[in-house]
Design goal:
homodimer, alpha+beta, Alpha-Beta Plaits, 2 domains, five-stranded antiparallel sheet, 7 helices, 6 strands, globular
Chain lengths: 158, 158
Amino acid sequence: MPPAVRLANMAWAEYHGNTRLMTAKTLDNFEKALSEKVKNNIKSQTKMEGKMKRYGKVIRVKPEKLEEYKRLHANAWDEVLKMIKQCHICNYSIFYKDGYLFSYYEYTGENHDEEMKKMAADPKTQEWWKLTDPCQEPLTTRKKGEWWAEMEEVFHTD
Amino acid sequence: MPPAVRLANMAWAEYHGNTRLMTAKTLDNFEKALSEKVKNNIKSQTKMEGKMKRYGKVIRVKPEKLEEYKRLHANAWDEVLKMIKQCHICNYSIFYKDGYLFSYYEYTGENHDEEMKKMAADPKTQEWWKLTDPCQEPLTTRKKGEWWAEMEEVFHTD
């Protein structure tokens, strides 16, 4: 696990109220320990933060294809996962219940539509979708151009 | 925005391949800048990381109550949000589409069931649920004791 991730988890845990692992005093030392260069990076990072956008999407899965869909996703291809990351999609999960698949991800890039086009143009991703698309049944109420139907975020708390 | 969160975002961005904002050299300086005390905290934090669990849940919303549900959640009560955080639930979102509500959250505590009981025993949360429950229609396929039906995670990538 990269040190940046351990650090991020620690900071998140503190922010989210898990004070068992990090007291206010430790946090204070933690901040003091940062170099000026890092502090400046944090400032420039602040601009980017506002751009993270959460996506929730829904689609149906064909009952007879559910096991195949699960099997595929239990061993998703490295090239596909790499392309997802390259397109600034992170913390991406898919959940199943009663014929529905719900997906959740966080987009940290600057142009979601453009990066989705980039992903759709990737030959390995296209190959992957040739296997996964036939498992799915898109909602008839989806918007034009959608496969997974985008949902409306009605609540969020950090 | 607390410094810990700005820092966490920076670290996550680096890990998730967004190198536009943080070069390898900056990350190196960043790590060097950490005090021994913080480094030790990171070590103890590593143990906790494995315990984070993602939850996806689904429920229906009554069509005539959708607007009320959205209105309530656009101004959720501080006491309710505070209780959510106290129960180690974070990054909690609810999405809507076609009569379905999908919720996603991350649990960083050590006993999910116990903390859900704690939440259910909180008078302010009970008061809140008296407003939100009548907006919802739980799935008939939910498990015994469930209100929101827990979904199965079939895919995840960081």
